Amino acid sequence: MIERAFVKENVVETLVDEYLKSKLPRAGYSHMDIKKTPVGTRITIFAEKPGFVIGRKGRMVKELTETIAKEYGVENPQIEVKQIENPDLDPEVVAQKIASSLERGMHFRRVAHSAVRRVMGAGAKGVVVIISGKLTGERSRTEKFMDGYMKHCGEPSEVLVKKAHKLAKLKLGIIGVTVKIMPPEIVLPDEIVIRESAGEVKEVSEVSEE
Fold first, then answer.
1. CB-CB contact of 72 with 15 (8 Å)
2. pTM of the complete model beyond 0.85
3. Judging by beta carbons within 10 Å of its beta carbon (0-12, 13-18, 19+), is residue 108 exposed, middle or buried?
4. Of 34, 21, 31, 22, which Cα lies nearest the Cα of 75?
């Protein structure tokens, strides 16, 4: 019974997350956090533009609250909106911007290179942008744009690398956009930092002189 309850909660959380992604693309939706409280369920939405989530006179928040309670069975949802500190380090926001630019008719190379520069300028250790689909003709292909250092396999690639995938709907067909970012604050398992005191450095220099 306990296992079923956990599975049900995870399914509901995933469905609510998918609903918010489809409902808040203009708000720069990143992710959400659900916590149960004594008075109900607190849902914290992280977005680039909180104003779009709230809506005029709170209409959007009211609509989201009613839908989440009615359609997904969340008990007394209370929505809180927080702004993302650095949108250029959030793969969900970056991927959504790329997809929106492609839908507006911008060239994929220009959009991808611009996104890579913004992410690296924000201090990321590495970034990879993958665009797949019918980019310029009838044949589908995949283009990859990257900069910095990126882990592609092993546990660090699953735990430390942030990933996001979005779809851009064009006349030629659907184009997939995948963004992988290594945040600046992470420490890789193979990184070694050697710290020496002033006295130790002085002794080494004296021995080398002798």
1. yes
2. no
3. buried
4. 34
CB 175 within 8 A of CB 105: no
Beta strands per DSSP E along 13-140: 29-37, 40-47, 77-83, 126-133
Cβ contact 11:74 at 8 Å: no
Helix (H, G, I), strand (E, B) or coil at 168: strand
Residue 126's identity, in one-letter code, is G
How many Cα atoms within 13 Å fall on the side-chain side of residue 13? 17
Parallel, antiparallel, or unpaired: how do β-strands 77-83 and 40-47 relate?
Answer: parallel
Residue 77: closest CA among 21, 20, 39: 39
Rg (C-alpha) for the chain, rounded Å, is: 22
Tens digit of pLDDT at every position of the chain (210 positions) = 566 777 788 888 899 999 998 888 888 888 899 998 888 899 999 998 888 898 888 899 999 999 999 988 888 889 999 998 899 999 999 999 999 999 999 999 999 999 999 999 999 999 999 999 988 878 889 999 999 988 888 777 788 899 999 999 988 889 999 999 999 887 777 667 677 665 554 444 444 444
